[in-house]
Specification:
Blueprint: E1 3-15, E2 23-28, E3 37-40, E4 44-51, E5 61-63, E6 89-95, E7 100-105, E8 117-123, E9 135-144, H1 149-156, E10 171-174, E11 181-183, E12 189-196, E13 203-207, E14 212-217, E15 220-227, E16 230-232, E17 237-243, E18 252-258, E19 273-279, E20 317-327, E21 333-337, H2 349-355, E22 372-375, E23 380-387, E24 393-397, E25 402-407, E26 430-431, E27 433-436, E28 441-447, E29 452-458, H3 461-465, E30 469-474, H4 476-482, H5 487-494
Parallel strand pairs: 1-4, 3-8, 9-12, 11-19, 20-23, 22-30
Antiparallel strand pairs: 1-2, 4-6, 5-7, 7-8, 9-10, 12-17, 13-16, 13-18, 14-15, 14-17, 18-19, 20-21, 23-28, 24-27, 24-29, 25-26, 25-28, 29-30
This protein binds CU-O-CU linkage (C2O).
């Protein structure tokens, strides 16, 4: 296995990815878009992150990696570490034990939609589709804002925005541009690895004249499932096989299309689509896409893991999270699980878990505003999300891929056991990010076999900053025997963290 050592200076650079507006973005080593990273299962990553932004602290999260034994490398400030303050350095050092499609992003307030995010991929020496494709193509989908996040957040969480209307993106991007052409050859099969690195919008994606076979979701190989359109919420990934035409007669549009159901208003002039092209022949035109009917983005339960892992259970422990958006009495809109809007503690929850001995099993150790749940080692855990809000929300659990046992239709209300009257899927879909329907619910399941402190949150950026998060403190006593606190970081945190709310 290889070791990949990175020296990353996090710096401001200027970019104009939609060709309409030049703005400062957060880059690495003076560069943006950021590098797509490629690892192989078993590799070690050593990323020296030097915060050279001057005016903001930072952090880095490798989304989808379980960080087994290295919970302290997971990244979210207030959960597993302190912010990396301006001028200081943090070293992320971990091994990569999974395969598939992922992304790395800042987990600090306001940063990844300002540019600090990119896809990464982990090759599988035992790739079940090996030999069935000729080449890989990386595609990132993203929404894009012209204004910087600190300004947008200020307007968003404000008495002037009592309904919590989310800022609507200015544009959609494919590989951080609106001019993407992918050269392809006829009669070949490509593995498209597609990642939604956006802040807010789920996106539909299709390639005109070509069908796709989904073979991976969120790092889990699946039995091939044919479709002519996919939908990825913010933070979801998938790989699809695309076989090209036998001849080179024409080029074909591929389209990413932001899910405008998520937007409270659709500003005049907004183009929710981004078009790129499969280019067979440079001498031919690049056609404009036809319009296309979209499909129900929730209908993805046929994505069966290749490994055949059956539904776990029964559950030993159920965490029920009732979510809503509401007012805290200050006139601004926030998001709540069980009446609590998440506020990052000054001392990261991981440090609390490591420093409190036997009391670490007591949820009150983690404070009243963290929505902390303590899970016992080896327990089969259910998380039920009951969505009391009329919007769609993509939830992400750090540290695990979970089995998707049930998800209700719109407007069903809270989970009730009659939804399981026909049992659960025998071999459920497994992934790390799942959307709950408007005023519906879902039930996901995993084994608490990864001691650590794991964030669970809506991956719509606006909802994370408004507090839609909980913390799973998993097997804290076993964790204490794995990890020790880096005391210097602990002191930095005590001096003052950066809460999600407040100024
Ligand atoms: Cu993409 Cu909390 O992470």
């Amino acid at each position: 296995a290889a070791t990949h050592t990175f020296d990353w200076n996090i710096t401001w650079v200027t970019a104009n990815p939609d060709g309409a507006f030049e703005r400062p973005v957060i880059g690495i080593n003076g560069q943006w878009p950021l590098d797509v990273l490629n690892f192989t299962k078993g590799d070690r990553v050593v990323a020296n992150v030097h915060n050279m932004l001057g005016n903001q602290s930072t952090s880095m999260h490798f989304h989808g990696l379980f960080q087994n034994g290295t919970s302290d490398m997971d990244g979210p400030p207030g959960v597993t570490q302190c912010e990396i303050s301006a001028g200081s350095t943090f070293v992320y050092n971990f091994t990569v034990d999974q395969t598939g499609s992922y992304w790395y992003h800042s987990h600090t307030r306001g940063q990844y939609p300002d540019g600090l995010r990119q896809a990464f991929f982990v090759d599988d020496p035992n790739d079940p589709y090996k030999g069935q494709y000729d080449e890989e193509v990386v595609l990132t989908l993203s929404d894009w804002y012209h204004e910087q996040m600190p300004t947008l957040i200020k307007g968003f969480i404000s008495v002037l925005n009592p309904t919590g209307a989310e800022p609507v993106p200015n544009a959609a991007l494919l590989n951080d541009t609106q001019n993407l052409t992918v050269s392809v050859q006829p009669g070949k099969t490509y593995l498209f690895r597609i990642v939604n690195v956006g802040a807010f919008a789920g996106q539909y994606f299709w390639v005109e004249g070509h069908s796709m076979r989904i073979v991976e979701v969120d790092g889990v190989w699946t039995n091939a499932s044919e479709t002519d359109m996919i939908y990825l919420t913010a933070a979801q990934r998938c790989s699809v096989l695309v076989t090209t035409k036998p001849d080179t007669g024409a080029n074909f549009a591929m389209v990413g299309s932001m899910d405008t159901d998520l937007f409270d208003t659709i500003p005049e002039g907004l183009n929710p689509n981004v078009t790129g092209w499969l280019q067979y022949d440079v001498s031919q035109t690049l056609p404009q896409p036809q319009s296309k009917d979209t499909f129900d983005p929730f209908d993805d339960f046929n994505l069966i893991p290749v490994d055949g892992q059956e539904a776990l259970g029964p559950a030993d422990h159920t965490v029920t999270l009732d979510m809503k958006m509401d007012n805290l009495g200050d006139g601004a809109n926030y998001a709540f699980f069980n009446e609590i809007t998440y506020i990052a503690p000054k001392v990261p929850s991981l440090y609390s878990a490591l420093s409190t001995g036997g009391s670490a099993v007591n949820p009150t150790v983690y404070g009243t505003d963290t929505n902390a749940f303590v899970l016992k080692k080896g327990d089969v855990v259910d998380i039920i999300v009951n969505n009391d809000d009329p919007g769609k929300h993509p939830f992400h659990l750090h540290g695990h891929a979970f089995q998707v046992l049930a998800r209700s239709d719109d407007d069903v209300g809270h989970w009730n056991s009659s939804q399981a009257v026909n049992g659960f899927p025998q071999v459920p879909m497994r992934r790390d990010t799942l959307m709950v329907r408007p005023q519906g619910n879902f039930l996901i399941r995993f084994v608490a076999d990864n001691p650590g402190v794991w964030f669970f949150h809506c991956h719509i950026y606006w909802h994370l900053v408004s507090g839609l998060a909980a913390v799973m403190v998993e097997a804290p006593l076993e964790l204490q025997s794995q990890l020790s606190i880096l005391s210097n970081h602990y002191e930095v945190c005590r001096a003052g963290g950066v809460p999600y709310l407040g100024n």
